[in-house]
Amino acid sequence: MNNKVFLTIMLLLFLKGLSAQNIDIRGYARTYEGILTETGNLAIAQQTLDLSFEKMGNKSAFKVNPVIYLYDVDSLNLKLRELYMDFFFKRFDLRIGKQQVVWGKADGVFITDIVSPLDLREFLLPDFYEIRRGIIASKLNYYTGNSTIELIWVPVFTPNEWPQPGSIWYIEPAFPVKPEFNYSRSDITAGIKNSEVFLKYASLGPKIDFELMGAYTWDDNPSLFTIKEFDTLGGHPALNKLEIFPEYNRLVVGGGSFSTEIKGVILRGEGAYYYGKYFQTTDALADGSLTEKDYLHYLIGADFSIGDVKLSSQVIQETILDYDDPILRKQNITTMTFLAQYDLFRETLHLELFTYLGITNEDALIRPKITYDLDDGFSVLVGANVFTGNTDGRFGQYKDNSMIYTKLKYSF
Amino acid sequence: MLISLLVLSGAFQNANTQSLTGKEIIDKTYNRPTGEDQESDLKMTLINSAGDTRIREIKQFTKDMGEVEKSIMFFISPADVRNTSFMNWSYDDDRADDQWIYLPALNKVKRISSDSKSDYFMGSDFTYDDLGDRKLEEDTHELLREENINGKACYVVQSIPVDKDYMYAKTITWLEKETFIGVKKEFYDEDGDLLKILSIKEYNNIDGFDIITFSEMKNIQKDHRTEMKLSKIKINTGVSDLKFSERMMTRGL
Known about the structure:
The complex is a heterodimer. Chain A has helices at residues 3-19, 128-131, and strands at residues 24-36, 42-56, 60-71, 75-88, 92-99, 121-124, 135-144, 147-154, 180-181, 196-204, 208-218, 223-231, 238-247, 250-262, 265-280, 290-306, 309-320, 332-344, 349-358, 363-375, 378-389, 403-411. By secondary structure, chain A is mainly beta. Among the domains of chain A are: 1-79; 89-264 and 273-294, no CATH class. Chain A has an 18-stranded antiparallel beta barrel. In chain A, strands 9-13-12 form a three-stranded mixed sheet, with no helix packed on it. In chain A, a hairpin with a 4-residue loop joins strand 18 and strand 19. Chain A starts with a helix and ends with a strand. Chain B is mostly beta strands. Chain B has a single domain, classed as Lipoprotein localisation LolA/LolB/LppX (outer membrane lipoprotein receptor (LolB), chain A), CATH 2.50.20.10. Helices cover 8% and strands 48% of the residues of chain B. Chain B contains three helices and 13 strands. Chain B has helices at 22-30, 128-131, 246-251, and strands spanning 37-47, 53-64, 68-77, 85-91, 98-103, 108-112, 139-149, 152-161, 170-176, 182-188, 194-206, 209-219, 224-235. Chain B has a 13-stranded antiparallel sheet with strand order 6-5-4-3-2-1-13-12-11-10-9-8-7. In chain B, strand 9 and strand 10 form a beta hairpin. The longest helix of chain B is centred in the first third of the chain and has 9 residues, at 22-30. Chain B starts with 21 loop residues before the first helix and ends with a helix. The interface between A and B is large, with 47 and 41 residues.
């Protein structure tokens, strides 16, 4: 028997046992299919069983969230999105185990929300609770009045997950010669020395909510340390070998966010200063073709309504400070998001349009969708992901991956 | 906002109620004693014209803290909204309410606009404003007549919003003379046509307070209705101030 199938059955039996102990069992079953509009090829064939087992007590609680993904016909993938224990005290809570952490006030943009890394194997298309990866961490929340101080210790570094060759979301890096990848520097040994620490002060109260945060962390994206070898035959140096060492670098981040209401409009802002982020450069003198720069990432956004239509928009900017021309990435990148939602028929039919608009790169990802609640807990979704614009842009590069898709979901 | 149909409820009154004005009658209803704190289970049944039903269940808590009244709701069903929570802080002065929602799928608490009181609550026939305690000065109130309904003498009071852009052109409420509990209310749309009728099916005296436990809102124009039942009502049990916090919104029940 396939090991994954065996493990899945064992897990289900184990969880059935848990259900006998008055453990709250929730979750959903979902079938999700998508077809590329360009070729008509099936791009997504994913069946999902997401289970959540929770027990809540006065002094403690636990949650286990196994997720079973079936890709295509028989490619089974089992993962534990979260597994943690909670301990409740009068003034503080302690959560230990694999968990997802969400910070900040931005929607669909990750600025101070850097505790949980991202699963980007399907770009930004999955729902946001599916994009975040769980981290092994201990989280302490101390409460005073309307304020919370949150301290997180992460002994095991978990990076962002990227698409692999063979995936329609994999973009092969462009190099003048075929590179050799050496992953000997990309392992971060778990332990105190390599752990990450995140600290947040948050206030939720009359008029305004705000958060201040700091982090001593790792950049969740690897930088590509590059060693070049040249031939000098004929008197002219010619590149003949590229060896690339993906490596993770330490990062210090400070930032904050706020949210307030002004005459019926929710105004949101978020910003973070990244000290010492590495960027690729063509500067011949740069060690490993990398340069270390400070980096600013911030946004301003507003949520409001026109009639029964709920609208939300954000303007996001990324800036590399003390910029040098040889840096491969643009100094400033501006992006906008736009969201419109409208509910009909006693909130059984939901219309939504979400768009990422790349202002600098003149590209976009447009995501219309219609969801109909056939019955309580049973929904049918039909949607599209339209990638358009400059093929050098973050969204335009996936121009061939525009698709229509459907999701049938039963929540229980 | 505690969902208890405050707008139609009132405590037993012993005051001299002769020659009261419409405003005085509504004032007595709005300012009824409701206890320091309450908790209850709410079940809404949404029924369409074909008789199909959908169920919404909520656990709710409220506490009057002097200048501010705080309430928090935890959504229990349907399954796709379970563990969603909603918190409202309502102020005695002219300040707008502060409101937040916790969505488990986003795993964070979001501030939302309190300027959406005309929105329908969870797809029901009740708007947020129908469920809350509207301020006395937001309408002009006129006593139209007195008449019997269900065998009980009632005042019939018409309330016209000061804000001409409000979703209702007027409401007409039947309030029992003895208890000041509204037993029926008609809502008229912006064109002056009858839109909805609220009927009180049952109320009970719990710990000395009159609480409406079963009501129905019927949309006359679209022929659908919502039944609302309150159960497990507890009053003045000493609900902690800490219940109304981000910590509890995210922790859930």
